[in-house]
Write a structure and sequence with these properties.
This protein is an alpha+beta fold. The protein has 12 helices and 21 strands. The protein has 3 domains: about 260 residues, FAD/NAD(P)-binding domain (3-Layer(bba) Sandwich); about 70 residues, Elongation Factor Tu (Ef-tu), domain 3 (Beta Barrel); about 70 residues, Helicase, Ruva Protein, domain 3 (Orthogonal Bundle). The longest helix is centred in the C-terminal third of the chain and has 23 residues.
Length: about 450
């Protein structure tokens, strides 16, 4: 058996009996094990052998998604988080879980285990070392300190309800337990081990699954507008319009690529595009290069510029007056007008076309890049069947869900990691209470 780099768990085979079995050793699974063990240590253990907490993972080493996140720096959380940062913003479930571990407590927790965080633009919180390895190592060390057993290359193949508890069948044997935590993630970034098997287990055990889609993924565009701009980034806004629904507008940094668009703005918008397709409809996406200005505002500025600087080239004026990156300004002028030319030669009709291109440029999205490039999975276990006070199943006593396996996904910027820590804490502490009261 290959052991985690830092935790160095017991060499005892994971078969046997345990009070808690956590399936999945990613962010949420580690958090659940740590918070359960902390709560038991803080409140006192039952007489006799201390409760055995096992984390089982099929990978040879843990934390692949932690290590690759945030450009290998790990965006641990965000300085400002509320339910509105998640696409289930209206759900009391989300608000209640987030309240269980406020951002200040999250920062304090990581400081306690040796990870100091720093705030970057848009509230993103990273380790001061700028290394995701710092985060993973600290979590593994804390788990080891608390006696949490971690077993890699121990893939769970099945979970069955047995009298008085559960039977967990894994590649190294069967484990009997009274409490099982599914922390298996979703389908995003399959190279890190996310294969959706936990979702299959949840469904097999009677839980309803909200259809899953890739979320926070780059988008593929038709045509060639984007090709000359590959590598260019700038602030913008994308408006998503879908028949019968209120339009959604998202702002952020956009990155043009050889295939289409990426960057925080495109990733945050991708969910709406995907959900429309799942519902059997199409979403129209339009891009504003001037998020604070309407088409009428832009046209007025262009009229004034033509009056004051008639010989000025359109692209130069777009860059000067509207703050557009020169390459973007030239591309818009060329596409909207046919060529870049002096402001004095722009007719009223063509000026209107230019204004519309700047404020409502149609994005011909053909697809997203899929789970291989998506940072998170949208959809999963229905919240209606989970208790937000415990993360326990309302259908199967002794079964818990944490992290990405649930039908909750947040925007980019540390919010999905916060969901992992928060759900892990709620489940871990609820499990410890159950053990102490039994």
């Amino acid at each position: 058996m290959t052991l985690p780099i830092i935790a160095q768990p017991s060499l005892v085979a994971p078969a046997g009996i345990a009070e808690v079995v956590i399936v999945g050793g990613g962010a949420a699974g580690l958090a659940a094990g740590i918070f359960a063990a902390r709560a038991l240590a803080r409140k006192g253990l039952p007489a006799g052998t201390p409760p055995r907490i096992l984390i089982l993972d099929g990978a040879r080493s843990l934390g692949a998604k932690i290590l690759v996140s945030g450009g290998s720096r790990c965006n641990v959380t965000n300085a400002r988080i509320d339910a509105g940062d998640f696409w289930r913003a209206g759900s009391p479930f989300v608000r209640q879980v987030l309240r269980a571990l406020p951002v200040a407590e999250t920062i304090g927790f990581f400081e306690e285990i040796g990870v100091n965080l720093k705030e970057e633009p848009l509230g993103k919180m990273f380790p001061t070392t700028n290394k995701s390895r710092t985060v993973l190592d600290a979590l593994l060390l804390e788990a080891a300190r608390l006696g949490v057993e971690i077993h890699t290359t121990s893939r769970v193949n099945n979970i069955e309800r047995r009298e008085g508890g559960w039977a967990v069948a894994c590649s190294t044997g069967e484990i009997r337990t009274t409490r099982v935590v599914l922390a298996t993630g979703g389908l995003s970034l399959p190279k890190t081990g996310s294969d959706g098997f936990g979702l299959t287990l949840a469904a097999t055990l009677g839980h309803t699954l909200v259809p899953t889609i890739p979320a926070l993924e780059p988008l593929i565009l038709a045509g060639d507008f984007h090709a000359p701009l590959s590598g260019v980034a700038h602030d913008a806004a994308i408006r998503v319009t879908r028949a019968g629904e209120k339009p959604v507008e998202v702002r952020g940094s956009l990155l043009w690529t050889h295939f289409g668009i990426s960057g925080p703005l495109a990733l945050n918008v991708s969910r709406f595009f995907r959900r429309a397709r799942v519902a059997g409809s199409e979403a129209a996406l339009t891009l504003s290069f001037t998020p604070d200005l309407t088409a009428q505002d832009v046209e007025k500025r262009l009229i004034a510029a033509a009056r004051d600087h008639p010989r000025q080239q359109v692209a130069t004026e777009l860059s000067r007056s509207f703050g557009l990156v020169q390459a973007v300004a030239l591309r818009i002028a060329t596409v909207a007008l046919g060529r870049d030319e002096p402001l004095s030669k722009i007719t009223k009709e063509r000026r209107g076309s230019l204004s519309r291109a700047l404020t409502a440029f149609p994005l011909a999205v053909t697809d997203g890049r899929g789970y291989n490039f998506a940072e998170v999975t949208s959809g999963g276990v229905s919240l209606d069947e989970v208790n937000p006070k415990t993360m326990g199943s309302r259908l199967r006593p002794g079964l818990y869900f944490v992290g990405e396996i649930l039908d909750v996904d947040g925007r980019i910027g540390g919010f999905n990691f916060q969901w992992a820590w928060s759900t892990g804490k709620v489940a871990g502490e609820a499990i410890a209470r159950g053990i102490l009261e039994s």
